[in-house]
């Protein structure tokens, strides 16, 4: 009986020793894993040049004004210019690796989950693909977003496309092969494809505009329009958020 108790005590002591040894060893492995992960993360940035591809042999780093704020969980890639006091929120993607360049004007906000991307603008012979470019003030872009524009949650601007100053692009709205004018509103889940939206017009929620005739008939923004001043308020908030995050 006494021998059994001694034997059990020895087994328990051995088990405890092995457990402690395993914890120490495992802890060491975790630390090594963490250091490797940190090293990998240090080599991968959310702000980076575009890769070399058959259609673009030159990597280009984004140009970002120091007063802009890019959230660590947002991605800004390639030939992108981001102006002063721009706010780029988590999970937004501004990716100029296929179509380029992408321009974002001062005091614009790119909210959570927004995508800015574009069709190929350079062919494999190094020639511009003109049909996939938009011209603004004499310069050509894959995507151009003006000043004081709000790109609300999960909206998409897919080039060739341009958005004029002081325009509000609502949640999950979609713009493709389109020029949106100044002081416009695309209400949530609306879409504009292959058209030019005149200044001061709005697209009602859920409406899809695919012909110029439809675009020309869009209602004008009047003093009693419900969202007339929405963009001003959103711009004010996001300019101050950019400043606050940078503080």
Commentary on this structure:
This protein has 247 residues and is α/β, with parallel strands linked by helices. The chain folds into two domains: 1-44; 47-246, Hexapeptide repeat proteins (UDP N-Acetylglucosamine Acyltransferase, domain 1). It is 26% helix and 27% strand. It is built from three helices and 22 strands. It has helices spanning 2-43, 212-216, 230-246, and strands at residues 47-48, 63-64, 69-70, 75-78, 80-82, 87-88, 93-96, 102-104, 109-110, 115-118, 134-136, 139-141, 143-145, 150-151, 156-163, 168-169, 174-180, 185-186, 191-193, 196-197, 202-203, 208-209. Strands 1, 2, 4, 5, 7, 8, 10, 13, 15, 17, 19, 20 and 22 form a 13-stranded parallel sheet that branches. A seven-stranded parallel sheet has the order 3-6-9-14-16-18-21. A two-stranded antiparallel ribbon has the order 11-12. The radius of gyration is 26 Å and the shape is globular. Mean pLDDT is 88; it is low at 1-42.
> Uncertain regions: pLDDT < 50 for 5+ in a row?
1-42
- Please tally the β strands and state the result: 22
Main β sheet profile: 13 strands, parallel
User: What letter string, H or E per element, gives the SSE order?
Assistant: HEEEEEEEEEEEEEEEEEEEEEEHH
CATH superfamily of the largest domain: Hexapeptide repeat proteins
CATH class of the largest domain: Mainly Beta
Shape: globular
What name does CATH use for the topology of the largest domain? UDP N-Acetylglucosamine Acyltransferase, domain 1
What Rg, in angstroms, do the CA atoms define? 26 Å
CATH hierarchy: architecture of the largest domain:
3 Solenoid
The overall average pLDDT, rounded, is 88
CA(first)-CA(last) distance: 72 Å
Helix content: 25-40%
Q: How many DSSP helices?
A: 3
Based on helices, strands and strand pairing, what is the structural class?
A: alpha/beta
